[in-house]
User: What shape does this take?
Amino acid sequence: MKAEKTGSRFELGMIGLGVMGRNLLLNMADHSFPVAGYDRDPAKVNAFLKEGASHDVSGSSDLAAFIGLLKKPRAVMMLVPAGLAVDSVINELLSFLEPGDLIIDAGNSDYKDTDIREKALYAKGIWFMGMGVSGGEKGARYGPSIMPGGRPEAYERVRPILEASSAKVKGEPCVTHIGPGSAGHFVKMVHNGIEYALMQLISESYDLMKRGLGLGNRELEQVYKDWNKKELSGYLMEITGEIFGRKDPETKKDLIDEIKGAAAQKGTGMWTSESAMELSVPTPSIDVSVAMRNLSVLHDERSIAKSNLPRPLVSFSGDCGEFVKRLESALYASMLLVYSQGMALLSVASSHHGYGLDLEAIARIWRGGCIIRATILEDIRNVYRRSPALPNLLLDPAFSKIVADHQESLRSVATEAIRMGIPVSAILSTLSYLDAYRSEWLPSNLIQAQRDFFGSHTYERIDRTGVFHTDWDES
Assistant: This one.
């Protein structure tokens, strides 16, 4: 380490020099910010120093020495696994930090944990920010979408660094102060829930074209690349096209065909569903996407069920080209409905948790850098420009017209999938959500009658006000 790279003058320190931490720190260094890194593994520290050799960077595998590198009041960011690891790092840091210093948790922590940590640290005079970061390895290195929560004063401390390091869309940085407390981590959690649903929808479109239409990987590659040039344009669509064009360097076969169909998860999708249920917000497309990942790992059980419940797939007998067009339209409608569910959850959470979320700003910073970035988000941003307090995107006439224009394709594709016997849980859930949300009458009156019958839970009436109970056993 060169002498000019020592001393208490580095503007931000990163704890955890794994893929995300190292790349985000190098991104900051690219923008001329003096930064330092820490990792218990000296090899990771050395790798960071080597990669950042042309920049003003430093690092150490000794925590005390690392803290000594930072300019006061210190700003320490950590990118470590959620849960106990975060608390462990915070406890270690408290031995070295002073009142006025700032800790930033940039991992995917449970927002409830973030609230607890923020309050406990603030009582000790330490600032704490829960900050969502989306974009994966490449996004961290060249510009992610960043969702910082916490107190505004804490955000201002690092705002220049975050704005410079974030993705840019039309010159606008994809970062904004989300709101107090755990707002940043809550918004990132919902972002990930939307991500789960979008990925499930795309995988179902793949199944329909592969098993339903019999399309090969070259044809699938071209379909997704074509879709990415139109309304469905977005990061997930872009990488899907690339995936179908990738060969396995060892077997020389198409890599997609060598990957086991068991999808892992780290919990953020499940947290989104749990939070939605706690707040009584329907997010069926996210919920079923979590369930389908759980179902995907039950390979042995599914093999037995295939024998116990035989039903061969019914061949598609129509015009394949026409079906692909309808599928494109159906997928677009489904994605709009997924965003509607996610944004509705943010709307309710904003009031319930006191976040004061700016949904237009959230749509704006999701347009670049993040995994769910898509052309759709520009339309969503415009909706919230017109109606900042709108509880659901489907209540906006212009947005709902777009959905309505594609709804028959969604219904047609769902019907054909059922006929063929191909599972499309996310597609069906978006259609059911649409039909239920626009239905002025739902059969829940029967549920209320049943609840009152077996549990005396009472019910309300449409012809008079009040709460009522019936003795259903009376003749």
